[in-house]
Every structure is written in C-alpha cells, then in structure tokens.
C-alpha cells in the first residue's frame, strides 16, 4: 500500500486505534476483530511485546489492514518497523528526525505535538497528520478548535482521552481523525476473546465519527 493510499484510508476511517496491550497475540486478535468491524487501521505501539513481528504478520496475512507502529522514539526503531512492513510511524512527541526518515523512505509519519509551536514545526518538517497528544487533558475538542483557527490546512488527529462521549465533538471541532485506546479496546473483550464485542464497539465509533463529520459539514455550509 502506498503512502497516499495509507493516508487516504486513515482519512476515510477517521479512527486510529492504539493497541497498547500486554501480549502479541492480544494485539493481533484486536486488530483483526476491529478490521472485521469496519476499522482496518491500527497502531501497534512498540511497547507491545514483539510489536514488529505483529506488524509483519498482519501485513502478510491481512494486507487490507493498515498496521502502523506507535511509540517510535528513534531511527533504529523506525527502520525496524519499516522493515517489518509498517504502514505508518507515530509517537507521542515531536521528533524531526523521524519525520525526515519518513520523507526519505516514503512512509507516512504522524508526529506527536501539543503546542502551536510544535504543530507548526511538525507541519513544516513534512508530517502527514499531526497527532495532538494528550488532547483531552488540555481542553479536548475546544483545544482542537483553537488550533484549527491558525492552522486550518494542517490535518490534526486528536489522541488521548477520546471516548464515545467526545468523539463526535472532535470532528465537529475540525479533527481529521482521532486516536482511541482503552475506550475502544476493552480489556475484558480481549481476555475473553470476544470479537463480536470489539466489532460492535468499532461500528458504534464509526457511527459517531459520521455524526460528527455530518454536523461539521452542516456548520461549514451554513
């Protein structure tokens, strides 16, 4: 899948689940259940044991799943993820070297940022989708709305504290996507290996994304 196709898929779905789990098998299970529920995009944080192997396995068995690497903190990790077939790279903070790595190798990079200065630096350096983290803790949708005023053309992904009560509001505020963790990846569903539970949650979140986008569109057209 090309970089353009990866970014198009993320933009289409609007949700990037972060599978911050304790076992490789759990991450694989969650990724496949979410894909079957309509969210074929996942972030496999490098805190997951054998994360690169999980990405490699998904890339080979389920190529329709856009499996990216999260918590990428250095170029060595970036190279390892690229070799494993990661579709994108992301981290909670801003690392200009990783953005440069992505540009050099043609892989999408979702750099973390929080302040307006970091958003500007990430965008100017070539970041594809700027991840605002931790978003809920600094104002949530109101903060995204405030950032979109000076940066109307910079695509932003809200991450940190996104849940069913707020996801639509992030899109109304102007977010291009959201990163979701435990509020979507229910630990009990993973433990009990109940894919239907995760599929149902995936479909619920997708419905909320559509609601938010529809309301945003109506405000813009008004």
Care to describe what's here?
The protein has 222 residues and is an alpha/beta fold. The chain has a 5-stranded parallel beta sheet. Strands 2-3 form a two-stranded parallel sheet. α2 packs parallel to α3 and α7 packs parallel to α8. The protein is globular and about 40 Å long.
- Distance, first to last CA: 37 Å
**Percentage of helical residues?**
40-55%
Q: Beta-sheet strand percentage?
A: 5-15%
Radius of gyration: 16 Å
Q: Structural class of the secondary structure composition?
A: alpha/beta
| Tally of helical runs | 10
H-E string: HEHEHEHEHEEHEHEHEHH
Q: In which order are the strands of the major sheet placed? A: 1-9-8-7-6
Q: Report the average pLDDT across residues.
A: 96
Shape: globular
Short description:
By secondary structure, the protein is α/β, with parallel strands linked by helices. 50% of the residues lie in helices and 14% in strands. Strand 6 (112-113), helix 6 and strand 7 form a beta-alpha-beta unit.
Primary descriptors:
222 residues, alpha/beta, five-stranded parallel β-sheet, two-stranded parallel sheet, 9 strands, 14% strand, globular
Set out the fold topology.
Elements: H1 3-13, E1 15-17, H2 24-36, E2 41-45, H3 51-61, E3 66-70, H4 75-84, E4 88-90, H5 96-105, E5 108-110, E6 112-113, H6 116-125, E7 130-132, H7 141-148, E8 156-159, H8 167-173, E9 177-180, H9 187-191, H10 195-221
Parallel strand pairs: 1-9, 2-3, 4-5, 6-7, 7-8, 8-9
